[in-house]
Amino acid sequence: MNKKNLIPVCTLISMGVVAPVSSASNLIEEVVVTAQKREQNLQEVGIAITAFSGDQLEAMGVEQSIDIAAFSPGVHISGNLAGQNTQFSIRGVTQNDFNDIIEAPNAAYLDEGYLAVAQAQTFAVFDIERVEILKGPQGTLFGRNATGGLVHYISKKPSFERSEGYVDITYGQFDTDADAGQYTLEAAAGGPLTDTLAARAALRYNRQDGYLNNLYPQFDPAPGSPGAGSPGAGAGADMGDDDTLAGRVTFLLRPNEDMDVTFSGNYASSEVATGPYQSKSTIAVFDGDPNAGGELINVIDTPANETRSSIIQGTDLDGGVDIIDGDGPVGGTPFTPLTRPVPGGDLFGYIDPDGDDFNTSSDFAFDDQGFVDTWGVNARLEWALSNDVVFTAITDFKDYEKLLFIDVDAAPGNQLANYAGVDATSFTQELRWSGESGNSRWVGGFFYLNIDNESDNGLKAPDNSIVFNAFGAPFDIGVVSSLETDSYSLFGQLEYDLTESLSATFGLRVIREEKDFQTEIGFLISNGNFTVNEGDFLPDVPLPGAPFTADLDSSDTLWTGKVQLDWQAGEDLLIYAGINRGVKAGSFNAPLLGAFLGAGGNPALPYDEEILLSYEAGFKATFRDGRTRLNGTAFYYDYSDYQAFLFVGVGGVVINADADNYGIELDLQTSLGQGLDAIFSLAWFDATVKDVPLRAGSPLPPRDVDPTYAPELQANAILRYEWPALGGMMHVRGDASYSDEFFYNLRNFDADKFDSYVMVNAGVGWTSSDEKWQLDFKLENLTDERAGVQGFDLATLCGCNEVAYRAPRWYGFSVKREF
């Protein structure tokens, strides 16, 4: 389908306002979910849930786990490393600390196995049965850090009925000057091996070239000026690439009709270039009032004619910048000029050649510099002890390793790089019993979690960098931390029918949380651009007493709970209302050196648990003989000690601050006629984080701010039409998603915000009459929208912010053969 024919389709979509497409003509089929640890019809569960089938995920072009956020309003993404390390944000509940020592407040699960490390929320999606997105606290039955909600991926299981499989090959091209292509192979096969044993294997290989076209050494600072000189051989690689191989093998043992034993193993390995950030010039604004102590009060985009390094509000003076900490003017340093070499440029004279398009010039950018490796095993026993009682045991082990890099200024000035590494394992064991009687359903059990996490984070001063030239050697300003977590919990939930149409739900989880934490922060000699934190810390560098160390521990008893009423007002109408108490355990910061010193040292390392009281009411209605579903919910969140990441300079710390949030969500799914289906949805909320300081120890009063990565309004629409043609079925589809503007820095400075956007995707395809062959032509980001993903405020370090955008326009063709 050519562009001329696509425009009317996409225009129609953009007039509507949530989510999935389907490879079947009728979207309005019964959806079965396991949000309450048993199979239920989606319309009979009093929880705000968005669910997608594997076919829907494929049709939407979902390749990475976090891609589904675009199709579920109220769900967004946060994180760091230009999208290479991404987490879910749900209803404004988010956490964007870039050290992997943290756990996210929105949990992610794969086959009921908890993904304990932040990096693990981004993974390749293939051979998936469905995904369930549960909004609001889910701490009773999903007991790990599900304060804001959770995302649960369920993979396809082996079948005893028949042997089956598929091969799917895709080729695509990104529309940028980098001439980047993408090649993807996905395949799966499975079936019975014996009468009691079945197996399934699946793999995915993706080879994607870098779409961010790197022009380096163009715009390199002039020889002899600050930041001139290459950081090493191979500098200036294109970015945004991906080389991933992932596989999964699952065995299903059914020794008798009362027992299923499932065992699976999975592995994924990715190699990527340096994170695809770009630079935009920004300028820091300081308060000129002597009583304010020269406080940083705003960051703005640099005016085209501006030559000052920073602005002292209320004076005509130039301001200095703090090359490491960024927490106040210092009147000039040996590293940076007091004026910008180029009007409107950063502190080293760089202006991005095409703004938010995909040409850049970044010196610290290398091919195959970063990697992410994950593997794990999962065992699940389900045993029907009687007609009314089922015992389930889930054992899960995962191993995580990664090392990723970014260029701090995302520009040709040779300044600093940032790195993030982790070596961690997690083990979980859940034992639960569930059952039902004539008027009640219940589930209860025990859960244990161990996380052993070692993280490397820091700044790298490579060869020829301005910091290297000052100290005479390449080095890392490193943070080496370890955190071991043991968590034990008992949980239970009871649903009791008060009448034939009214039921009550009561849930409780009690948690014992123990943590042991060590960290060491200081300077180390660097052994190259691909290694970090090697050798011993240098004593008394850069300050007497360095390296700075801490050895801390904590033990807490926490609880979550749920009380809810469900009223089946009619055969096709459910109304529910309830109160949920969510909790996320306190933990410890592992900040960069500047943030550690600026936040007050060791006293700023621990932070408390966050507690969320959620008040929610909603309805689920079915009309037109099952051809239309309309679901809606309204909620109010009352947060105590919300864990918010306060970014200052080139680092930051998690602080506790109260917050509140209220909003509404609507989801309409309808079959408009023979072969024509549509889904529209909308989410709006208003969230406030209260009394947030500009930085630790700021002399200015704290302020109320918006949370990060939390657009107030999101809307989605999808239309799909199919008809008989060419001996099979043709289909055309289009989807559009709208996101309001949002901040990527908790201080809510003017320059630290991404604009609103509309993303449009479209496609046309054909399926053979026997459904064995499927051909698809796809267009993603049809209008080539610049949708912001992640950003960092570095105005006091380089006179710039680094920003990353969703991938540019992509077009491709796929061939799928099922057997």
TrEMBL record:
Indicate the segments forming the TonB-dependent receptor-like beta-barrel domain, all copies: 331-782
Give the matching SUPFAM superfamilies.
Answer: Porins (SSF56935)
Top-level taxonomic group: Bacteria
The GO biological-process annotations, alphabetized, read as:
iron ion transport
In what way does this protein cross or attach to the membrane?
Answer: Multi-pass membrane protein
- Ranges for domain TonB-dependent receptor plug: 42-149
For this UniProt entry, what's an example GO CC term?
cell outer membrane
Q: Where is the composition biased (Gly residues)?
A: 226-237
Signal peptide (residue range): 1-23
Q: Where in the cell is it found?
A: Cell outer membrane
Keyword Signal among UniProt keywords: yes
Q: Which InterPro entries match?
A: Beta-barrel_TonB, Beta-barrel_TonB_sf, Plug_dom, TonB-dep_rcpt-like
Protein's name in the database: TonB-dependent receptor
Q: What organism is recorded for this protein?
A: Exilibacterium tricleocarpae
